[in-house]
Amino acid sequence: MRPLIELRQVCKHYRRGGQSVPVLHALDLEIQAGDFLALMGPSGSGKTTLLNLIGGLDRASSGSVIVDGQALEPLSSGQLANWRARNVGFVFQFYNLLPVLSAARNVELPLLLTGLNSAQRARHVAAALAVVGLADRARHRPTELSGGQAQRVAIARALVADPTLLVCDEPTGDLDRKTADEVLTLLQELNREHGKTIIMVTHDPKAAEFATHRLHLDKGQLVGVEHQGP
Amino acid sequence: MLAQILAITLINLRAIPARLGSSLVIVVGIGGVVGVLIALLAMAEGFKTTLASTGRADRAMVMRAGSNDELASVLNIEVWNIVRDLPGIRRDAQDRPIAIAERYILSDVRKRGAESGANVVVRGTTPDVFRVRPEARIVAGRMFERGKREVVVGRGALDQYADMQIGQRVDIRDGAWLIVGVFESGGDVHESELWVDVTALHQALRAPLYAAVTVQLADDRPATFRAFEQHIADDPRLNVSVQRVPDYYASRSVALEKFITVLGYSVAGIMAVGAVFGALNTMYAAVSTRSLEIATLRAIGFRATPVVISVLAEAVLLAFIGASLGSAMAYVIFNGYTVSTLNFQTFSQVAFAFRVTPQLLVEGVGLACLIGLLGGLFPALRAARLPVAEALRSA
């Protein structure tokens, strides 16, 4: 079976004060559809960079990133934005909800990029909020939600346009253990019951236990892959 | 695309209350620019209107050839006798030509509430001046009497100069003349004048000369005026020029109007540059405090163009609010506000009211939108070029 995500000889380096700082070295990686992958490794190991390359937020310096048959390198920044809108849902450590919008309006944002009318959008938003268990919080502003609730709203936003891929950067990094476990359980359900492919960057070994695969990075190189049965 | 622009713009606008202070910089800055611009241009507009509204198109003014000003024109009594009998002049019920010969001098008076003097126009005319200028009328006291050293003062002169009340005396040449009445003239330039009897003025000046003859033509058609002009040109005894009264006064306002207009645009231009920097500063701050939001929207799949347009829209909207406040203030404070100034083309003082016209308001709002656009452009481009991955990480 063809993998959902293929990385071929991907290198990434940043320019810092005229110097080239390498972050990823000739990385090869395949991720199958339906995987729940935890990307682990020490700070500076390139986890987030790798996540950004797969999510189409950043571009590889060389090599190729192919997601669902689409090579990302040739896309213009506008095309890449359209591609992200259709294919990727993002979950961030600090939720990144827009404070002036209600939970429902935040969840609705990705749908504004689709051709759906407002009634259809409202139905999708309600369904997404129901999936994350926050149907009763639709009208609340982000400041009126707990951290766990805010992250679940962010997950609903990531889900609502039904993307192929969920990309999560330290989704529980700002949450206490109990809330973190609830959020991780939710991600696990989305993976198992809704078939979402999830890639999650985390420091936390406990969080990584919820994933089907664990991938360790160090100094920009893959140092280990673990598979754990469900 | 439109939906994207609308969505992001609305989000931006809803965040304005959280950045009220810096948003006010744009509103107040631009409000000030627009207010000052409109006030200055309203002054030019008012001045122009006052002079241009003087006289009617069916009225013509005869002066010595080569004189472009009443002050410089001298006509003797013969000219007056010839001109008033020319064909083309309307005649009244008694078959008398509707025409008047007037003397025009300047006299020094004191401005109200100031130590400085001012040149007031003293117009030697006759008690039946209203035949030629029916728009003028006595509103207090009475008209001066023939041959007496009496004065009626225009409404504008009454407001602008000291000691112009009925019963007071005003110095004209060799004596003190008694003020007996106040006249109005539809807000035109005559309201800044003092009217006296021309015969009395001749005695005071010891010279029976006139400055101009004003006649009422049969109608206001250009052909009628051209015919009258031709009669004058054809008469070998006359060495005079004739023009329509509104044209004469319009030509009197050109220099000062230009001066005020240039001044207005210069001052507003300098202020506008300041306002552009204010807007730049505010919008840069707005973009930078929202960089995480913008990056998030970009990550979700919003494109750069709607982000640019939304930032511009916010800047322009704030500018528009500022412009509205500035225009409203200019209108409330200055519309109809009466001042007087020296018209350096005629060396005489003219009282006029500021006129805030719809066109000026449109101009002010246009300038404001331009300032908003300029001030918003660079911050908007910065927002669009924001490296998404980096901005998300800096959270």
Rough outline of chain B: elongated
CATH architecture title of chain A: 3-Layer(aba) Sandwich
Number of domains of chain B: 2
Q: Strand portion of chain A, in percent?
A: 25-35%
From the alpha-carbon coordinates, what is the Rg of chain A to the nearest angstrom?
17 Å
Element pattern of chain B in H and E: HHEHEEEEHEEEHEHEHHHEEHH
**Uncertain spans of chain A:** none
Q: Could you tell me the mean pLDDT of chain A?
A: 92
The strand count of chain B comes to 12
| CATH topology assignment of chain A | Rossmann fold
Largest interface chains and counts = A-B, 29 and 23 residues
pLDDT averaged over residues of chain B:
89
What is the count of helical runs of chain B? 11
Estimated helix fraction of chain A: 25-40%
CATH superfamily of chain A: P-loop containing nucleotide triphosphate hydrolases
* Largest sheet entry of chain A: 6 strands, mixed
Give the DSSP E fraction of chain B (strand runs of 2 or more residues). 15-25%
Q: Let me know the largest β-sheet of chain B.
A: 10 strands, mixed
Contiguous low-pLDDT stretches of chain B (5 residues minimum) are none
Q: How does the helix and strand content of chain A classify structurally?
A: alpha/beta
Helix proportion range of chain B: 40-55%
Overview of this protein structure:
The complex is a heterodimer of chains A (about 230) and B (about 400). Chain A is α/β, with parallel strands linked by helices and about 230 residues long. Chain A has helices at about 45-55, 75-85, 105-110, 120-130, 145-160, 175-195, 205-210, and strands at about 5-15, 20-30, 35-40, 60-65, 70, 90, 165-170, 195-200, 215-220, 220-225. Chain A has a 6-stranded mixed β-sheet with strand order 6-7-8-3-9-10. In chain A, strands 2-1-4-5 form a 4-stranded antiparallel β-sheet. In chain A, strand 4 (about 60-65) and strand 5 (about 70) form a beta hairpin. The two termini of chain A are about 20 Å apart. By secondary structure, chain B is α+β, with helices and mostly antiparallel strands. Helices cover about 50% and strands about 20% of the residues of chain B. Chain B has helices at about 1-15, 20-50, 75-85, 155-160, 200-205, 220-235, 245-290, 290-300, 305-335, 360-385, 390-395; strands at about 60-65, 100-110, 115-125, 135-140, 150-155, 170, 175-185, 195, 210-215, 240-245, 340-345, 350-355. The longest helix of chain B has about 45 residues, at about 245-290. The model of chain B has no long low-confidence stretch (mean pLDDT about 90). The interface between A and B is medium-sized, with 29 and 23 residues.
